[in-house]
Each structure stands twice: as C-alpha cells, then as structure tokens.
Amino acid sequence: MTEPVLSVRDLKVQFVTRRGVLKAIDGVSFDIAPGEVLGVVGESGAGKSVTGSAVIGLIEPPGRIAGGEIRLKGERIDNLSPEAMRRVRGKRIGMIFQDPLTSLNPLYTVGEQLVETIRTHLPLSAGQARRRAIDLLAEVGIPAPDRRIDGYPHEFSGGMRQRVVIALALSAEPELVIADEPTTALDVSVQAQIITLIKRLCAERGTAVMLVTHDMGVIAETADRVAVMYSGRIAEIGPVRDVVKHPLHPYAVGLMGAIPSLETHADRLVQIRGAMPRLSAIPPGCPFHPRCERAFARCAVDRPEPLDRDRRKVACHLYDEAHAEIAS
Amino acid sequence: MLAFIIRRLVQSIGVLLAVAFIAFAMFRFVGDPVNQIVSIEASAEERAQIRESLGLNDPFVVQFARYVGRAAKLDFGISYQFRQPVTKLLGERMPATLELAFVSAVFALVVGIPMGVYTALRRDSWLAKLFQAVSLVGVSLPTFLIGILLIYVFAVTLGWLPSFGRGEVVRLGDWWTTGFLTTSGLRALILPSITLGLFQMTLIMRLVRAEMLEVLRTDYIKFARARGLTRRAINFGHALKNTLVPVITITGLQLGSIIAFAIITETVFQWPGMGVLFLQAVQNVDIPIMAAYLLLIAFLFVVINLAVDLLYAVVDPRLKVTVRAA
C-alpha cells in the first residue's frame, strides 16, 4: 500500500471556555491516499470543519489541538512552528472555503491575490507568476482570463468567484486540498459544475481531497471514501458505495435513510429522533446511544472504539464479536 | 468620474451659498453696521449718507448678491476694529493656523494608526492595555487642560519647549509665513500640535483598533491565512487596507474640525492664527471677520469632503463603480 498523503491519528481538539473544556474533536483517526477524495459528512457541530481547520493549522484560540498526530506524507505537521506551518499552508495543503462571496479580499484584483499567493510559495518573477495566474484561471474555466485577471472580486458572480478560490487553493500545486462545504453557498445549478471542477482538477494533478459537506448527494457522486462524523468522533468510515448503500452504524443508517429517493414514494422522510448533544453535555459511552434504537446496556457505559469490518471501520458495540449474540 | 466631480462641485457651491446667506444675515441681525463704522457723534445726515454709499438701502436680495459677488473675488469688506481689509487680516494669519493643523493631523495619523494596529494585533499585551487606558484620557480630557498641563510640564517645569508664540518665521512668497524652516519655529510647533492633535490621535487609534478587530474576523483574512501568506502581508496588506475607508472619513471630518476648532489651542498657546483673530472679532462684534471666517471654514470643509470622496474611489474599487455611475 502506498503511503497516505494525510494521516490523522487520535486527533483531539478542545475549546477552553469559562464553563469548562469542550471537546470538539475527540479521538479522530483517518488516512487519505494520494489522489483519493475523502468525504466527511455529519450534522452541524459534528466537528467536520474543525477537523479541516486542525489539519491546515488554523485552529484559533480558545481552541487548541489537545492530542494526537497529523502527518503529511509521513512528516508530523501538528507540532510545527507557526512560521513553518505557514509555509505548509497554501503550498502543500490548499483550502477552499464555503462562501466565495466573502473569501476574496474586495480591495485587490483577482490577479493581485493570485500573484501574491504564487509568489509567496514559488520562486517566480512577477511576470511569470502573472502568466501562471492566467493559466490557472483558464484551467478553472474563467472565460477571457487574460482580461478577467484584472477584475475585482465584485465583478465576478458567485460561481465564478468560487472558481477563483479554487485557482487560489491550487496555485502552488498542493498535495492535499481541504474543501470545506465548497458548494453550500452556491446556486444548485452551479454546485454540480464546481464539484466536477474540483474533482477533475485534483484527479489530473493527483491531489488528495478532503471534502467536508453535509450534502450526501455530493459525497455519493464525488468521494472515494466517506467518514460519517458524530459528536466529534468518526462513527463509520469506508468506501462510499458500501457506506451509502449498506451503512453499518445506526447513525449512518439513519442518515442514509433520511435521503429522499425518487424511486420510492414516502409521505414523510425518515427522521432520527432527538438532536445531537451539545459539546458541553456529551453523554458517556457512545455519544449516539440516547438516540439509538438498537442501544443496549453497554452503550451507555463503554465508549465504542473503531472496529474493522471488511474495508471499513465502525465505532459501534453491535459489531463487537463478544456481543454479536446480543446484537442479533 | 468627471461627471461625479462636476456634480459634487455644484453641490459644494450650494452649500457655500447657504453658508454665505447665514454669514450675510449676521450683518443684518447683529446690530446696525453703520453704528459699528461711524463715531457716536455722527449726525443723522452723515449716517444716512453712509447708509446710502454702503448700499444698505437696496433690497435684501440685491445686497446679498453684491456680498456673494464680492466674496467670490475674495473681498470680504473692511474689519470694523482694524480698519483693514478682512482678506489681508485672515491671509496673514492663515499660514499659522494651517501649519498647526497640518502638523497636528500628521501627528494624529502617524501615531494613531500604528497604535491602533498594535492594540488590535496584540490585544492582550500590557502595552496595548496601556495605550487603551491612555487613549481614554485623550478622548475625555478637554483640550485647554491638556494644553495647560503640557505647558506646565514641558515649558515651565522642564523648560524644554517654548510655551507661547510661533518662534521665528520665514516669509515665503507674498503672504505665506512658515515656522518649518527655523529651529525655534519647529520647537514652538510641538506643544500646540500635540494639544490639538491628541484628541484626534486617540480617536483614530480607537477607530483603527475597532475596525482591525472587525476585519481580522472576516472570511477573506481566514482565507489569506489558509493561502499561507506571511503575517505582515495579512495584517498590513489585507487587514489594514480594509480599515481605511472609515478612517479616511473620520480623518477628513476631523481635519476640518482641527482647523475650525484650533481656536482653543491657539488661545492657550498665544498662537498668532485665525482662531485668535476670530475670538477678538467676536468680542468686538467685528462682523466682516466673523462672516469671512465662517465662509472660509465652510469652504475648507467642502474641499476636504470632496477630497475624501475622491480618496474612497482610490482605496475601494467597489466604490469606484458607484462614483462612475453617479
């Protein structure tokens, strides 16, 4: 097996507040192979975005990485100095944010922002960087890039701005791109184009992608593997086909069941009863057990560790061999 | 762009006409101008003659038109107390006031902006907290008190700097005198400029700090970090530039106030500027000077505001569009 581009082990992110320590991420582990697209799904507050921010080193106080390791091509990056980490950002890990309308500085032209990023990371002259910027704009599908490069962000539409953001994220040929809800703020008609674009560009370059979203449709179409997050932990992670079609974890089952389908007629969509616990009140044992229909005694006491099941990992006592008889 | 400037110029003329009307109305309502000119012993015929020769019997509109016409040629009449043309009196003193205002404004910007940036970036350092505390003193202490305190410490107790006057001045051209070219002139500028600029400085500092904190929270700053830009590029290239529009607005308004309200500082430091002249005019009901001063300040405000509007377009490309469309 090839060495993963990104390897996260037992990552813990905490927010220190006056009311105590909130565990936003509590023991998350996953790998992303070169050229692979890993989808990360979950409800709001499940820790998807925080995981992305932790990987690129943008957790801001009062938040902090409280434990675990993040390795990029085998090198640890979670304990780098701020200056060394800055050099990793943009150069080796690119990031695409949710809202293209606010991601670009309104006072600089698109070209100025591209050239600035390129020249921060690559030893190019101003002219070379500009040519590269024009090429990048052409690649992300901006018409007449040699003219549009001198336009200001407000002269671009939302979809076009997200293309610029993608060009910025890819400008230094990173090994990994973190896309944090890249289509949430866009028109439905543009969403598919942007997703296709990210997928195509990263496939061409062999760039690995961590795609954070709550849109299962996007995941099903784009991702190779998917991680389902709940209360700062990974409930289930595995190949997208398996997880979407035959989810194992009761939460994943509920999540997939909630996707409306064109084939079957339903008067009411499936709903998981209750709500995700607040970070200050995560129940002991499995955080999902109060909402889980298949919970049993052990779930309230014992925290489930990820178990290997075929090609996936699932954190649920139902799949623990010792309790198989109880589950069945 | 040109259409915008022309439109603004027409508006400016409207503003100036309105101010001129108020200035002119002073002549009519603050006592009889004839009484200010002639001696107490003048006979009724003499008074009537002067009234006629000054055109005071003409209809109001005609008189106003005549006043505006003269003002356009920088003729504001003769001062009652000095028996000299108002234009000459104001012109002699204008350099002193403008130089003082200029140095104060530069001081306020050059010290205020970096302090604002520093207190925003290092919010928790003790120096930032000290700046914040000092700035509270700056916004709340009245100008004359600051001036007197500075005189007491630096002129009286330490004896480092002069406590009054402009020092030696050098004549440039026909009417401009400058204190910038002599040591004593420069030394004399220090205390009054600090006194006049301290309030503006603390105001700018607090404004820059608040705006910086706002901008540093925005998505494009987060994205700039995610692009791996250096701290310096982010803080100064991206964040500071985005705080400039409100800073320019306030600075523009404040620059007008610095010139208009230099009166107090000029009085405290016996500064031979327009403010002192204006105060004397008020005491002696010297209406031509008061009216001309009013018009001059209005003119400065209008010019500064126009400059501010044009600067917006330079700083923020989004505003250029509205400027072009206007």
Automatic annotation (TrEMBL), chain A:
Membrane topology value: Peripheral membrane protein
Keywords per UniProt: ATP-binding, Cell membrane, Membrane, Nucleotide-binding, Transport
Record localization: Cell inner membrane
SUPFAM superfamilies from the UniProt entry: P-loop containing nucleoside triphosphate hydrolases (SSF52540)
Domain named ABC transporter: residues: 8-256
CDD domains membership: ABC_NikE_OppD_transporters
Keyword field contains tRNA-binding: no
Any single biological process term in GO: transmembrane transport
Single GO MF descriptor: ATP binding
Disulfide bond listed as a keyword: no
Gene Ontology CC annotation, any one: plasma membrane
Name recorded for this polypeptide: Peptide/nickel transport system ATP-binding protein
From TrEMBL, chain B:
Residue ranges crossing the lipid bilayer per the database entry: 12-30, 100-121, 133-155, 175-199, 244-269, 289-315
CDD domains per UniProt: TM_PBP2
Domain ABC transmembrane type-1: 94-312
Cellular-component GO terms for this entry: plasma membrane
Biological processes, Gene Ontology terms: transmembrane transport
Major location (coarse): membrane
Record carries keyword Transmembrane helix: yes
Keywords: Cell membrane, Membrane, Transmembrane, Transmembrane helix, Transport
Pfam families (alphabetical): BPD_transp_1, BPD_transp_1_N
InterPro entries recorded: BPD_transp_1_N, MetI-like, MetI-like_sf
Subcellular location: Cell membrane
Membrane topology: Multi-pass membrane protein
Similarity comment: family membership: Belongs to the binding-protein-dependent transport system permease family.
PANTHER family, A to Z: ABC TRANSPORTER PERMEASE PROTEIN, DIPEPTIDE TRANSPORT SYSTEM PERMEASE PROTEIN DPPB-RELATED
Protein name per Swiss-Prot or TrEMBL: Peptide/nickel transport system permease protein
